[in-house]
């Protein structure tokens, strides 16, 4: 077992220190329209900030630059020359290799009619394009080139079960609206209308010679009739059919007996 | 004083330093190919033993110990350290592993892959994992270092999965990356660095082959942070499978190495995290109970049927396995738990809120839809890497009974008054008719009496 500290001394380069690493020169990006005439052109070098570039559906993007090594001061062909397209918002990344000749000259051409396989899905937001230069012999580096706006691509459909792994939209049931009733005042008015014949009756009763004499023979029968009405009212408010039939049967028997007695009193 | 201190020290030394148990079982089978030596992975295995696991070793072409005996799984967890073995005995081959995953309780599997094509590569492909062409290990020219470029330093991701420890130091990796399909049961645990890519070249002269290989394959270049080196699969029955792109991630060599002067690599910690997740220690949830009742019901009796428009309360208790205490503890901070009230399609979907004074309890009250039928309370909480929480309780929703409707409506007052006044009128009429008849009867009687006299 080797001692750990002497195993693999790994040196992490500090990016801010300008050490001898792979770099490029004469970088240019040209966007050609369908007929071949250049519509945009951009020169970029390692020290510049990113600039925006826009490519439409029928246009071609051509990149050219030469890779060279700062320390050896000559043009080299690195092992890894990749263009990285990254969309910050959707976190989509795509990496496309660039062909570099032995003399260090790199050429890249992209036509959206036949886009490179490594291009990520695009939206209306621009893609950050950076260049990754890596090598076994020279120290590599990553450079930000430009912000590329491409026409949005057709989105790939997600897996059918993907949505169940995230919060799903809430569903509320739309209930039938509560029953509306007319204003109580109108109900009161019509209830009064229903009671109006009583007013007429009570008024006309003055002209009838009626004298009431409670008779002990008919009173029980009248009381039974009144209690039947009361039973019906009770049924409306509270009772069930079984109960009302039971009470009604008992009361009916009582009414029959009282009625027979009342009838016999007339004979 | 000194004796008691010695005694205390003795007691402390008897307690294992990092006791963490699995929720499903302690027996682990390590299938190790002959080219690998168990001593090179001693830190990893000793850590497993100290956490309470019993570790058994065997070679892929040995017959004992078997994984299944008379159709009963013998081990709760299996580690396949067979990255280059082409011949596997039938009971540790892909078919047998599938059978073990589907058992109840299921077996968890940790698989180490490699740039070579082996039966384990086919096993991984079944889980929607895309592997690069054979013999193309992952390399990265960054950061500049003197160790081989096939040994990568991977920093812990900024948005790490909850199963990884916080503040994980950079880890060393050697092996192959893979791409994950869009199956949501599959998720990345550690992604490859942005500048890494899969290739078989070792010199700058092979630069052209890198470009040509990407055109030939039709899939493009195997590069970038969309590839992952460690990924996990959480099956719906609770089984867990982890795929690691290289077995050296678990080795003592990498665990003891330094990624920066004075800073040890995070390999030991990462190996523990991967094993803890795969062997059902971390992120294991369980539904303790689920019940439903009418809102105001103090006795909380579960009803067989509810009436439409009833207010119904649903409550459930969830606990999480704590590997250190070796038991399930109520868990109150699950976000975005949702309840669906379903009849063929969800009629209602609401969030379940944690009840403040009852740990681990989640509850919601809602109004039953005004459709009648057989509904189901469905909770199906799935997230990448955690045990799915599933509840399905059928219940009937019936329309109101004949006496369940609102009564004594204000719109019906005229009708009530009419009926009651009819009854009153009848009684009045009876009184007048019977009473008055008595009066005329008496008059006739009197007249008759007078006539007679």
Automatic annotation (TrEMBL), chain A:
Cleaved signal peptide residues: 1-20
The keyword Transmembrane appears for this protein = yes
Identify the residues that the record assigns to the Ribophorin II third domain, covering every copy.
35-112
Q: Which organism is it from?
A: Tulasnella calospora MUT 4182
Q: Which domain of life is it from?
A: Eukaryota
Keyword tRNA processing present in the record's keywords: the answer is no
From the UniProt record, list the coiled-coil ranges. none
Q: What does this protein do?
A: Subunit of the oligosaccharyl transferase (OST) complex that catalyzes the initial transfer of a defined glycan (Glc(3)Man(9)GlcNAc(2) in eukaryotes) from the lipid carrier dolichol-pyrophosphate to an asparagine residue within an Asn-X-Ser/Thr consensus motif in nascent polypeptide chains, the first step in protein N-glycosylation. N-glycosylation occurs cotranslationally and the complex associates with the Sec61 complex at the channel-forming translocon complex that mediates protein translocation across the endoplasmic reticulum (ER). All subunits are required for a maximal enzyme activity.
In its UniProt entry, what is this protein called? Ribophorin II
Q: Name one GO cellular component term.
A: oligosaccharyltransferase complex
Q: In which pathway does it act?
A: Protein modification; protein glycosylation
Q: Locate the Ribophorin II C-terminal domain: which residues? A: 175-266
Q: Which InterPro entries match?
A: Ribophorin_II_3rd (IPR055374), Ribophorin_II_C (IPR056790), Swp1 (IPR008814)
Mind listing the GO biological process terms from this record?
protein N-linked glycosylation
Q: Where do transmembrane segments lie in this chain?
A: 185-207, 219-237, 243-263
Report the sequence similarity comment from the record: Belongs to the SWP1 family.
Membrane topology designation: Multi-pass membrane protein
Instruction: Cite the PANTHER family for this sequence.
Output: DOLICHYL-DIPHOSPHOOLIGOSACCHARIDE--PROTEIN GLYCOSYLTRANSFERASE SUBUNIT 2, RIBOPHORIN II
Give the record's keywords alphabetically. Endoplasmic reticulum, Membrane, Signal, Transmembrane, Transmembrane helix
Location in or out of the cell = Endoplasmic reticulum membrane
One Pfam match: Ribophorin_II_C
Automatic annotation (TrEMBL), chain B:
Q: Which terms in the GO cellular component ontology are assigned?
A: oligosaccharyltransferase complex
**Where, per UniProt, does this protein localize?**
Endoplasmic reticulum membrane; Membrane
Please report the record's description of how this protein sits within the membrane: Single-pass type I membrane protein
Write down the InterPro entries for this protein, in alphabetical order.
Answer: DDOST_48_kDa_subunit, OST48_MD, OST48_N
Domain OST48 middle: residue ranges: 298-435
| Signal peptide from the UniProt entry | 1-20
Q: Which Pfam families match?
A: OST48_MD (PF23358), OST48_N (PF03345)
The transmembrane segments are: 413-436
Q: Which domain of life is it from?
A: Eukaryota
Q: Where is the OST48 N-terminal domain?
A: 27-278
Give me any GO biological process, just one.
Answer: protein N-linked glycosylation via asparagine
Task: Look up the record and name the pathway of this protein.
Answer: Protein modification; protein glycosylation
Entry keywords, A to Z: Endoplasmic reticulum, Membrane, Signal, Transmembrane, Transmembrane helix
Q: How does it assemble?
A: Component of the oligosaccharyltransferase (OST) complex.
Q: Into which family does the record put it?
A: Belongs to the DDOST 48 kDa subunit family.
Q: What does this protein do?
A: Subunit of the oligosaccharyl transferase (OST) complex that catalyzes the initial transfer of a defined glycan (Glc(3)Man(9)GlcNAc(2) in eukaryotes) from the lipid carrier dolichol-pyrophosphate to an asparagine residue within an Asn-X-Ser/Thr consensus motif in nascent polypeptide chains, the first step in protein N-glycosylation. N-glycosylation occurs cotranslationally and the complex associates with the Sec61 complex at the channel-forming translocon complex that mediates protein translocation across the endoplasmic reticulum (ER).
State the name under which the record lists this protein: Dolichyl-diphosphooligosaccharide--protein glycosyltransferase subunit WBP1
Organism name: Tulasnella calospora MUT 4182
Query: What is the phylogenetic placement of the source species in the record?
Result: Eukaryota, Fungi, Dikarya, Basidiomycota, Agaricomycotina
């Amino acid at each position: 077992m080797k001692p750990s500290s002497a195993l693999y001394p790994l040196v992490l380069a500090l990016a801010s220190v300008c050490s001898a690493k792979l770099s490029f020169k004469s970088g240019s990006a040209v966007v050609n329209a369908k007929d071949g005439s250049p519509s945009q052109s951009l020169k970029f070098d390692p020290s510049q900030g990113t600039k925006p570039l826009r490519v439409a559906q029928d246009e071609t993007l051509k990149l050219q630059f030469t890779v060279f090594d700062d320390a050896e001061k000559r043009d080299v062909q690195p092992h890894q020359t990749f263009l990285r397209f990254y969309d910050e918002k959707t976190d989509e990344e795509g990496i496309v290799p660039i062909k570099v000749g032995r003399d260090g000259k790199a050429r890249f051409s992209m036509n959206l009619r036949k886009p490179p396989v490594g291009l990520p899905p695009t939206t209306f937001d621009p893609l950050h394009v950076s260049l990754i230069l890596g090598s076994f012999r020279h120290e590599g580096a990553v450079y930000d080139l430009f912000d590329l706006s491409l026409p949005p691509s057709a989105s790939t459909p997600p897996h059918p079960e993907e949505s169940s792994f995230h919060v799903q939209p809430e569903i509320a049931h739309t209930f039938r609206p509560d029953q509306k009733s007319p204003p109580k005042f109108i109900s009161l008015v019509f209830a009064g209308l229903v009671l109006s014949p009583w007013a007429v009756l009570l008024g006309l009763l003055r002209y009838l010679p009626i004298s009431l004499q409670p008779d002990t023979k008919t009173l029980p029968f009248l009381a039974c009739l009144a209690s039947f009405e009361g039973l019906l009212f009770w049924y409306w408010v509270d009772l069930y059919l079984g109960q009302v039939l039971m009470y009604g049967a008992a009361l009916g028997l009582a009414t029959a007996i009282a009625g027979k007695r009342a009838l016999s009193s007339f004979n | 004083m000194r004796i008691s201190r010695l005694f205390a020290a003795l007691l402390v030394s008897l307690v294992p330093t990092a006791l963490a148990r699995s929720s499903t079982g302690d027996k682990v089978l390590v299938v190790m190919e002959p080219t690998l030596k168990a001593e090179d992975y001693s830190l990893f295995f000793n850590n497993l033993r100290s956490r309470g696991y019993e570790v058994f070793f065997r070679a892929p072409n040995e017959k004992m110990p078997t994984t299944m005996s008379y159709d009963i799984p013998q081990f709760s967890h299996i580690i396949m350290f067979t990255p280059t073995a082409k011949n596997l005995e039938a009971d540790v081959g892909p078919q047998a592993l599938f059978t073990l995953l589907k058992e109840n309780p299921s077996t968890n599997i940790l698989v180490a892959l490699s740039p070579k094509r082996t039966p384990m590569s086919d096993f991984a492909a079944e889980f929607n994992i895309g592997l690069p062409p054979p013999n193309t290990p992952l390399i990265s020219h960054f950061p500049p270092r003197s160790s081989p470029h096939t040994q990568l330093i991977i920093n812990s991701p900024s948005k790490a999965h909850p199963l990884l420890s916080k503040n994980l130091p950079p880890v060393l990796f050697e092996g192959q990356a893979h791409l994950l399909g869009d199956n949501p049961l599959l998720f990345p645990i550690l992604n490859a660095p942005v500048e890494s890519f899969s290739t078989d070249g070792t010199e700058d002269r092979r630069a052209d082959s890198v470009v040509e290989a990407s055109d030939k394959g039709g899939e493009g270049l195997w590069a970038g942070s969309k590839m992952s080196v460690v990924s996990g699969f959480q099956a719906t029955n609770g089984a867990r499978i982890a795929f690691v792109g290289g077995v050296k991630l678990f080795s003592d060599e990498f665990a003891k190495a330094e990624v920066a002067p004075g800073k040890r690599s995070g390999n030991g910690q990462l190996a523990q995290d991967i094993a803890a997740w795969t062997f059902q220690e971390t992120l294991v949830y369980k539904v303790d109970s689920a019940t439903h009742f009418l809102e105001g019901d103090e006795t909380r009796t579960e009803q067989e049927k509810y009436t439409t428009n009833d207010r119904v309360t649903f409550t459930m208790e969830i606990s999480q396995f704590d590997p250190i205490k070796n038991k399930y503890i109520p868990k109150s901070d699950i976000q975005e738990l949702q309840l669906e009230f379903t009849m063929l399609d969800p009629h209602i979907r609401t969030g379940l809120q944690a009840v403040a004074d009852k740990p681990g309890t989640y509850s919601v009250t809602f109004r039953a839809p005004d459709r009648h039928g057989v509904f189901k309370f469905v909770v199906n909480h799935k997230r990448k890497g955690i045990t799915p929480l599933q509840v399905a309780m059928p219940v009937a929703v019936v329309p109101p009974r004949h006496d369940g409707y609102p009564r004594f409506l204000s719109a019906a007052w005229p009708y009530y008054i009419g009926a009651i006044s009819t009854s009153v009128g009848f009684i009045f009429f009876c009184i007048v008719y019977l009473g008055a008849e008595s009066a005329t009867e008496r008059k006739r009687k009197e007249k008759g009496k007078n006539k007679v006299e």
